[in-house]
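Run log // design_07
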């Protein structure tokens, strides 16, 4: 069981590193470290071995389709329920929707003419189009924001309904479909996110579409042409709605290539075409439109944090003090540094301005300092990423207000009785420890790893379905600006019910 040992070791090590402060100084806590490592390994080992030995035939029996229920009724039922719940919330509690600082920045671009891909330009363009359409029809910008969110809710309704229908078509029991639907319809974060203007929400829906269509192509479910069309739509959203999406899609393509290079070249051509097209849209096309790419500091979250950690902790600067002054006012770094978010230090660098055009110089400086401070670099990386592989952190999940703005977007007056009922549900959900895994990023990351592992060991192609999510997490471990940002990992929560049940379910086609 080499792979069981490997994943168990990674799990144990990840948990211990995330809590490294509990073992400081390490020289006096080696017995505790060994105990924690051993305990974590045992937990990981038992879980993975159980899944390998018991999961080969599937945990959830193939119940077959229920007589009289056409698959389309599943997508209609789940989709209509999701749309009804969230449209009701939008117009009674959240009108015109929860408008974040990111959304204000996106809309500001079109007023100032200073276009940027810092927030994905194509999401900003969609926001602008629907907002202007709503304002043109109804006469005010609030209606425009609401129209955009109506479209977003309907899009998510189709995504969740499509995934639920696919679970049904595989022959999984109705109890599985109901469980998955309940997670999509009733989870507070799904409700709150459906009425929030953030790029992460359509990204999460697009990734579910992509994953579901890929599964249907694997299993030969439904029309091949229809599945390919949905795959393309999902892949385009995957590539364009988040800055790290195109990289994650490219990683996914590599995995699909190794599995399907001889079996399904058309699938590979479709994915390659989307990748090439998305690259052209994000680079040459945006250059023609005079849309600037994210600034250099934005791509250096973790290296910036590592250097700032060394300065703050009084580490060995390896004789690079003069060079550092070009990028930082080093005497101010300790007061700006926050171990869990890179924005203060990035903004510090932006004010100095030297980083623009001198990225290579900074990387060389980072490497020279890192040679003398590997321990501090590791700690800084852990502090900046631990929320993505260790569960249990209390950190905000959703925004429920309209950001102050000069655009005329204002919060409506909610129906207090409905708002109170909704927030009582939120409080009960987040207040119950039994629900904690359902909104834990770390738990879902390891769940994705187990789905990948179980599928690979059983030589089921379903392991490919977890690759996009793991690729997204990989990009976050390299460049996340926040240690535990739920919305960055939101796509985990849109796809997890589908991935879990398809990986560990016994399909009628198996």
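design_07 sequence
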């Amino acid at each position: 069981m080499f792979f069981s040992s490997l994943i168990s070791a990674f799990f144990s090590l990840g948990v211990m590193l995330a809590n490294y402060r509990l073992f400081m100084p390490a020289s006096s806590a080696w017995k505790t470290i060994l105990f924690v490592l051993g305990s974590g390994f045992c937990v990981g080992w038992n879980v993975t071995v159980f899944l390998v030995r018991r999961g080969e035939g599937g945990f959830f029996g193939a119940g077959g389709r229920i007589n009289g229920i056409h698959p389309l009724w599943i997508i209609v039922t789940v989709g209509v329920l999701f749309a009804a719940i969230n449209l009701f919330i939008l117009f009674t509690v959240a009108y015109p929707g929860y408008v974040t600082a990111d959304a204000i920045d996106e809309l500001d671009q079109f007023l100032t003419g200073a276009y940027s891909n810092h927030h994905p330009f194509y999401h900003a363009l969609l926001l602008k189009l629907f907002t202007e359409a709503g304002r043109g029809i109804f006469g005010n910008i609030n209606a425009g924001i609401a129209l955009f969110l109506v479209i977003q809710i309907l899009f998510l309704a189709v995504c969740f309904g499509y995934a639920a229908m696919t679970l049904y078509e595989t022959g999984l029991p109705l109890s599985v479909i109901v469980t998955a639907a309940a997670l999509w319809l009733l989870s507070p974060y799904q409700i709150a996110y459906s009425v929030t203007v953030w790029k992460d929400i359509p990204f999460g829906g697009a990734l579910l579409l992509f994953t579901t269509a890929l599964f249907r192509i694997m299993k030969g479910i439904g029309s091949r042409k229809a599945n390919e069309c949905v795959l393309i739509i999902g892949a385009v959203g995957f590539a364009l709605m988040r800055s790290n999406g195109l990289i994650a899609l490219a990683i996914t393509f590599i995995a699909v290539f190794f599995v399907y290079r001889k079996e399904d070249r058309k699938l590979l051509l479709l994915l390659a075409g989307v990748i090439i097209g998305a690259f052209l849209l994000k680079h040459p096309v945006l250059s023609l439109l005079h849309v600037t790419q994210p600034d250099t500091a934005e791509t250096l979250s973790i290296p910036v944090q590592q250097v700032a950690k060394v300065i703050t902790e009084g580490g060995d600067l390896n004789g690079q003090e003069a060079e550092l002054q070009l990028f930082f006012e080093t005497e101010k770094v300790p007061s700006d540094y926050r171990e869990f978010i890179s924005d203060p230090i990035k903004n510090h660098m932006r004010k100095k301005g030297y980083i623009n055009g001198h990225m290579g110089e900074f990387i060389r400086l980072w490497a020279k300092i890192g040679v003398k401070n590997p321990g501090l670099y590791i700690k800084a990386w852990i502090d900046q990423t631990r929320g993505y592989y260790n569960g249990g952190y209390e950190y905000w999940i959703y925004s429920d207000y309209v950001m102050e703005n000069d655009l005329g977007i204002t919060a409506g007056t909610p129906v207090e009785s409905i708002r109170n009922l909704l927030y009582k549900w939120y409080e009960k959900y987040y207040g119950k420890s039994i629900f904690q895994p359902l909104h834990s990023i770390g738990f879902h990351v390891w769940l994705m790893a187990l789905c990948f592992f179980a599928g690979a060991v059983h030589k089921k192609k379903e392991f490919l379905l977890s690759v996009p999510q793991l690729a997204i997490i990989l990009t976050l471990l390299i460049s996340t600006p926040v240690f535990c940002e739920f919305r960055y990992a939101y796509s985990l929560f849109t796809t997890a019910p589908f991935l879990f049940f398809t990986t560990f379910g016994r399909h009628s086609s198996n």
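The chain has three domains: 2-54, 71-293+418-445+466-504, 296-388.
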